[in-house]
Amino acid sequence: MDNLYDPAVIKKILSRHGFTFSKRLGQNFLINPSVCPRIAELGGARPDGGVLEIGPGIGVLTNELCKNAKKVVAVELDGRLLPILSETLSEHKNLKIINADVLKLDLNKLLAEEFDGMPVTVCANLPYYITSPVVMKLLEDRLPVESVTTMVQREAADRLCAPLGTREAGAVTAAVRFYSEPEKLFSVGRGSFMPSPNVDSEVIRLNIRKTLPQVADEKLYFKIVRGVFTMRRKTLLNALSGSLGIDKAAASEVLKSAGISPTARPEQLRGEDFAALCEELSKSGAAH
Asked: Are 52 and 145 in contact (CB under 8 A)?
């Protein structure tokens, strides 16, 4: 169905199925016809590959993905949308819809079962409240995918794509940059949705790293990242000592060995700084 961008058509379909928008699920459906073809193209949908879509809504992006990819598997949380998707996407035989919470799925198993070794990318249109948990699951599960292309609120895009060492950076930024190389693709105004949200959005792509950065202890690396960013307004000495329970004298020695100023703020650290800090803490055993 190619007229899914028409608000009048959408309203008729939703009304016929007795569907009402859920604020709790952050539902906003795209009505700008220029957006989804670009997401499908930039998201890597191609004739020999598969796409895992998260949150198909009424199927606007799914329609474009199915036109371009060999196979699409769409995961939708809201069961009320399933009969609507059956209607709007009935022409596509290369589509499978799964009614599930993506955060509870074994995605590695799903990809192995559904895509039979073909190259896979992920496309998603994520509501603000669930952006970070879904992005982190996709990255931490170490999925055999080439990239994750998603539309998020602009503020989230700034945070996810921020360079480490800048004020916008946080724990999720460090994690995103550990597993991928993020980039902003294009902006999407609030008028592109129905109902219209109060903020603008941004489409970003996380290009998954084939080789992860070398760190002494990956678990410790993320323990440091999460710990210091919970105290991001404090000096690094106080943040490290307070969040990891390390004696200040020991924390000061570790920072000195890593070549990091104890008066720096967590948001000033770059990836190599976190790696050096992890190396020195691992040697000292102070954080274990």
From this structure: yes
CA atoms within 13 A on the CB side of 203: 24
At the topology level, CATH places domain 7-208 in: Rossmann fold (3.40.50)
Residue 97 has what pLDDT? 98
Extract the tokens encoding 111: 């990809």
Of 176, 206, 178, 202, residue with least CA distance to 189? 202
CATH topology of domain 218-284: Helicase, Ruva Protein; domain 3 (1.10.8)
**Contact partners, residue 106, CB within 8 Å, separation at least 6:** none
Confidence check: pLDDT of 286 > 70: no
Dihedral pair phi/psi, residue 140, rounded to 5°: -70, -25
pTM for the full model? 0.92
Q: C-alpha 282: how far from its chain's center?
A: 29
| Strand bridging mode 193-194 / 95-99 | unpaired
Neighbouring-strand partners of residue 72: 51, 95
pLDDT digit string (tens) for 18-46? Answer: 888 777 767 788 889 999 999 999 999 99
Instruction: Give me the residue spans of the domains in the chain.
Output: 7-208, 218-284
Is the confidence at residue 122, as pLDDT, over 70?
A: yes
Task: Tokens for 48, please give them.
Answer: 């020999």
| pLDDT on residue 28 | 81
The amino acid present at 75, given as its one-letter code, is V
3-state secondary structure 227-270: HHHCCCCCCHHHHHHHHHCCCHHHHHHHHHHHCCCCCCCHHHCC
Q: Is 268 in contact with 165 (CB distance < 8 Å)?
A: yes
* The pLDDT of residue 239: 93
